[in-house]
Design goal:
Elements lengths: L19 H4 L5 E6 L2 H12 L5 E7 L6 H14 L5 E5 L7 E6 L7 E3 L12 H5 L2 E6 L6 E7 L5 H15 L11 H9 L2 H14 L32 H11 L4 H16 L25
Parallel strand pairs: 5-6
Antiparallel strand pairs: 1-4, 2-7, 3-4, 6-7
Length: 295
């Protein structure tokens, strides 16, 4: 018997229950699926630096609820959201190849009531990687506060907003939305054919053909042998509230101003109006039904 989810036709076969290291959790595992390339890169870095991509997020609830109310809501959300029950298993200590283990339920120790938050967070042991989602709850004030400790391979900023929305909905005793699972993203990415990747590669090769990189000018008048990175800080004269207000009027994110200013400065340095720089997005453009609702 093997632990198969809905992605058994993917290019990479799923882990079998006969794997000795997983057999001990046979009754606790719902399924095992591959990691995406991005997840593997993050996890490999965490194996090298145990604090890498280990994030904590503190939130304050807008309503008064008991610890038991919040605990029940989190367990309910975990039962409906596989990624909250997901852990990671490294095939070997140094291989950098991981799989996702979707557990049937959270451990009781993953949600704790505390008097003060413990911020430090890292994944150092096999157990840490297997259960990388934990929540601390403080109810000593009128508005409870929660500290989520969660590895970045489990969520992005978009996902966390969805999680907070569902938590608030559940705590208000309203019906939460039914969401597609992250395994559908994994399934899509595992089925992307090498021919499709070659098409994309050929497109960008053609588009960038003949491109000659322009070096930034050297204003020192001499070669600088010191390659140590230096940084300088200062306070902007721009009024922050006015910046945000104008961004709302134009229906744009305030960071667009920073990007535009960066492009303008680079154009002055390079002597060209054709400026290109990259911007990382959450990857919500893939053709998966309901991808904007996936946590």
């Amino acid at each position: 018997t093997s632990l198969h989810g809905t992605t058994k036709d993917s290019a990479r076969s799923l882990i079998h229950i006969e794997t000795p290291q997983l057999a001990r959790w046979r009754s606790d595992i719902a399924c095992v699926i591959p990691c995406t390339s991005l997840q593997e890169a993050m996890l490999a870095e965490t194996m090298s630096r145990p604090t890498a991509y280990c994030n904590w997020i503190e939130v304050e609830l807008s309503i008064t609820r008991t610890y038991e109310d919040i605990q029940d809501a989190l367990h309910y959300l975990a039962s409906k959201t596989e990624v909250l029950r997901t852990g990671f298993y490294a095939e070997s200590q140094h291989s950098g190849t991981f799989s996702q283990i979707i557990w049937k339920e959270l451990l009781a120790s993953q949600i704790q009531e505390v008097d003060s938050f413990s911020m430090p967070y890292s994944l150092r042991s096999e157990e840490d990687f297997l259960r990388p989602f934990r929540t601390q709850i403080m109810t000593i004030s009128e508005r409870p506060r929660l500290l989520f400790r969660i590895h970045h391979a489990l969520y992005d900023g978009w996902s966390f907003d969805l999680l907070l929305h569902d938590l608030d909905t559940r705590l208000r005793r309203e019906e939460t939305a039914s969401r597609p699972q992250f395994r559908e993203v994994v399934q899509y990415l595992s089925q992307v054919k090498s021919e499709d990747q070659e098409v994309s590669k050929n497109y960008w090769t053609s588009l960038l053909s003949g491109y000659l990189p322009i070096s930034l000018p050297n204003y020192h008048g001499r070669l600088v042998g010191d390659w140590v990175t230096h940084h300088f800080t200062g306070r902007s004269a721009i009024d922050r509230s006015q910046l945000f207000e104008r961004a709302r009027e134009m229906a744009i994110n305030p960071q667009v101003y920073f990007q535009a200013a960066t492009a303008y400065v680079l154009s002055l340095y390079s002597g060209t109006t054709d400026v290109l720089f990259g911007n990382v997005t959450s990857g919500r453009t893939i053709p998966v039904a309901g991808v904007e609702d996936i946590i």
